[in-house]
Specification:
Family: Belongs to the GHMP kinase family. IspE subfamily.
Binding site for ATP: 94-104
Strand content: 25-35%
Helix content: 25-40%
GO biological process, one term: isopentenyl diphosphate biosynthetic process, methylerythritol 4-phosphate pathway
Mean pLDDT: 95
Structural class: alpha+beta
Number of strands: 10
Largest sheet: 6 strands, mixed
Number of helices: 10
Domain GHMP kinase N-terminal: 66-144
Shape: globular
Organism: Caldisalinibacter kiritimatiensis
Amino acid sequence: MAEIKIESFAKINLCLDVLKRREDGYHEIKTVMQQIDLKDIITLKDNEDKVIIETNHPQVPTDSTNLVYKAWKLLSNRYNIDKGVYIKIDKNIPVAAGLAGGSSNAAAVLKGLNELWSLNISQKELMELAAQIGADVPFCIMGGTALAEGIGEKLTKLSSFSDKLILLAKPSISVSTAYVYKNLELNKIDFRPNTNDIIRYIEENNLESLATNMGNVLETVTIKEYPIIKEIKDKMIQYGALGSLMSGSGPTVFGIFKNEDDAIKCKAELSKHIDTVHVVKTL
């Protein structure tokens, strides 16, 4: 029986601006997305008659609500493939954390089934299909560094920003993305990140300027609700981070470090109070 293993990488947002609320209820955003080397491993095997999803994480659904199921359904319907699949998800990316773990898993299944079923779908077409599953899924197909616009599905590949040292910390709270966007008051945002500047700093490989000019307008909602997010940001700066930001709608916070010793010391300090802390690198 053929078996395929695929790496499924997390992402952070180096900046995130929300431009407006659309009539359909979605929000227009402008964000720079960056893949990091924190990853899940997805194993796929042929299974004749049904979809079986297994995982090592109790909070990950194993039914049709999981995005990996939606990825299977999308491809099997589109290409008239009448068979199931066995999907095993070895989770390392925190769940509901603003790191696109579920979206990344769905992207990995699209890529894996493309190979397992010998469909020969181009990356461009795979990304177009991925947009039907969720706004972050096309980026997880593309990877690297990208500007995302629209609801996140309009992607522009950017210069590589790989091998940068990142400390991630996820407090043990759950944040609803829908709640954050619903409570975002666009007319009361004092600071908006300058996305064009962030892109220029990436092109110049100017780590210090990028780190000190990052911004995420969703922090205006999430920090009010969960002050621990600001406490983590402050702690990272105190321990030598060049800059610190909440990723996506949270609650994960990341810091950009130049010095690995500083990142390791900060990890040790944060780990006293927070279960999920990782030193990672950008891809």
